[in-house]
Design brief:
The protein has 207 residues and is an all-alpha fold. It has six helices and no strands. It has helices at 6-34, 40-64, 76-111, 115-140, 159-186, 192-206. Helix 1 runs antiparallel to helix 2 (40-64) and helix 3 (76-111) runs antiparallel to helix 4. The radius of gyration is 20 Å and the shape is elongated.
């Protein structure tokens, strides 16, 4: 019986990558029509996409080296390559999210003159920097050097605690990134349809 889920992982990786690319294209097209200028948030979202592409490539290498099939069936060299690819994918995953979050905050700072909004954006940016720095450091040194990638056999920190911390704080910062534009648009004196349109402009970046 074939227990491999490698094809499913590859399909999902391609789907998510294409979705990310299409979202960035939609974002760029929308901004080209409405704003007709390039700002720091454009460069930040481009950096996010580059790290996303790198992560997807790492996942592909990970899959080619055995990710998606029972580890007991892998040779030592294949397992080693698979773990190194997983390690690389994790290190690229965090900055991809980091730059995407900063892009939203940079856009907020650019378009709002409200002092409270700008202070909130700066405060949230500091939290996002702290989240990314601690997450990247913990991921990079999950296990003792030199084999920092070899979590099944090395002396390592608690991986479950790491991922719980990383993803819970990721969800919390994303929630704040949704709430801040929502509060901003709720104060705008315009129709509900236009408010939804403005908020969806931010939502493309949060995605």
């Amino acid at each position: 019986m074939d227990t491999s889920i490698k094809p499913a992982i590859k399909v999902m990786t391609i789907f998510l990558l294409i979705t990310s690319i299409l979202v960035v294209i939609a974002r760029g097209t929308t901004k080209a029509v409405i704003v007709r200028s390039t700002n720091i948030d454009d460069y930040l979202i481009a950096l996010s996409l580059l790290f996303n592409i790198g992560q997807s490539v790492a996942v592909f290498f990970q899959t080619e080296n055995g990710y998606g099939i029972p580890s007991k069936t892998l040779s030592l060299s294949s397992l080693s390559s698979e773990l190194k690819s997983e390690y690389t994918a994790t290190l690229l995953y965090i900055p991809s999210l980091f730059f995407a979050k900063l892009a939203v905050l940079a856009l907020i700072k650019t378009i709002t003159p409200n002092r409270w909004d700008q202070r909130a954006a700066y405060s949230l940016a500091a939290l996002v920097v702290l989240w990314a720095a601690t997450g990247e450091f913990a991921a990079a040194f999950m296990c003792h050097v030199p084999n920092t990638w070899d979590w099944p056999n090395g002396q390592c920190n608690d991986r479950h605690a790491f991922w719980n911390y990383l993803e819970v704080t990721n969800i919390l910062t994303d929630t704040a990134l949704i709430a801040l534009p929502l509060i901003m648009t709720s104060r705008i004196q315009t129709s509900m349809a236009k408010k939804v349109s403005i908020f969806s402009f931010f939502a493309l970046r949060i995605m």
